[in-house]
Amino acid sequence: MVERFFRELTGKRIRRGVFRSVEELVAAIYEYLEAKNDDPKPFVWTKTADEILEKLAPLYTARDNAR
Known about the structure:
By secondary structure, the chain is mostly helical. It has one domain (2-66). The chain is 72% helix and 0% strand. The chain is built from 3 helices and no strands. The longest helix has 18 residues, at 49-66. The two termini are 29 Å apart.
């Protein structure tokens, strides 16, 4: 979730801006957060934990076999 939040922040605000100082960057981030919090939308998981773990299982198996 943290990665998703920062990806959205970067894509929708930071990458599109020009900041001449750290203060301008910080102000832009706070403006983005305020706008986002004005109309919050909860994250809804579309898969169960078991479905996610099942999909990741081959990665863990491959990693364990590589050791």
